[in-house]
Write a structure and sequence with these properties.
This protein is α/β, with parallel strands linked by helices. It is built from 10 helices and 7 strands.
Length: about 280
């Protein structure tokens, strides 16, 4: 068990973003006794090709709760009132994000970067970046208690290069939890087997006909490269953090420190992100 229990808040745009970018880390941190909360700013009601939006919203909520159960995270909150593809960095939603952060009182808040392909990811990134300073302003949202210490803010890995590539300031090896990470992805049937398979290949996959080994093979084949690329790009950080094990790591989840929250050094950030 960890000496000090740390609190991690991962704010994604959709009900699978946190799993995709932080699932393995969440399993390791939760196992070490830390508290991890996932949030989806949107209700997921556009990620399909044939379901009604209401049925999809309800189905995706259940998928988040299944993923919560297999991962050991504390909570998976979904903002049911925010439709997919319509999220805006409005003052109204800024207040919700400030309250969310203050009430959870995290050590670390992670979200998307501003340079993302999806409008909801960009809006989420903007909302969280805006909160990084305003969390400390007591007259804004006075009903939510201002934390004694401002959280550290950061971003989860992406492969976008414009205006600049992601900086791998901290990294967590996830080789030893790929089974659990795949189990989390496997909960999001409407996405990993249906919508995203349909979007990429034109044909959804039926996991009902697959054994767990086949499903894991499918998930690694379709999602594994993301974490292999992250590990390769973050090799220096992995070696600095893990020594010899960092040289051999195949899969990693990586994080960029934001300058807008509590200011810490890269070394402190690496320490903070370790289980
Ligand atoms: Zn998303």
């Amino acid at each position: 068990m960890a000496d000090r229990i740390k609190r991690f808040l991962i704010i994604g745009a959709h009900p699978d973003d946190a799993d995709i970018r932080f699932g393995g880390s969440a399993v390791k941190l939760a196992r070490a006794g830390h508290i991890v909360k996932f949030v989806s700013m949107c209700n997921g009601d556009c990620g399909h090709f044939s379901m009604t939006r209401e049925a999809l919203r309800d189905r995706r909520y259940l998928e988040t709760q299944a993923s919560k159960a297999v991962s050991g995270i504390e909570e998976y909150q979904v903002f049911a009132e925010h439709h997919d593809c319509e999220l805006e960095a409005s003052v109204e939603i800024r207040k919700k994000v400030i309250s969310l952060i203050r009430n959870f009182n995290p050590d670390v808040v992670l979200s998307h970067r501003l340079c993302d392909y999806h409008a909801d990811h960009r809006a989420t990134a903007q909302l969280v970046q805006d909160a990084a300073y305003l969390t400390q302003v007591p007259l804004f949202c006075p009903d939510a208690p201002v934390p004694a210490v401002n959280p550290v803010f950061g971003c989860v890995f992406d492969a976008f290069t414009d205006p600049r590539p992601f900086r791998h300031d901290a990294a967590i090896i996830v080789d030893d939890v790929m089974d659990e990470k795949c189990q989390m992805l496997d909960c999001h049937v409407s996405q990993v087997y249906e919508w995203l398979a349909y979007e990429h290949t034109g044909t959804p996959v039926d996991p009902g006909k697959m054994s767990w080994e086949e499903k894991k093979e499918y998930l690694i084949a379709n999602w594994g490269a993301r974490y292999v690329n992250a590990a390769n790009a973050a090799r220096e950080t992995l070696v600095a953090t893990y020594g010899e094990a960092g040289k051999k790591a195949v899969y990693a989840e990586t994080f960029e420190l934001s300058p807008y929250g509590r200011k810490i050094s890269i070394e402190e950030f690496r320490q903070l992100m370790q289980p």
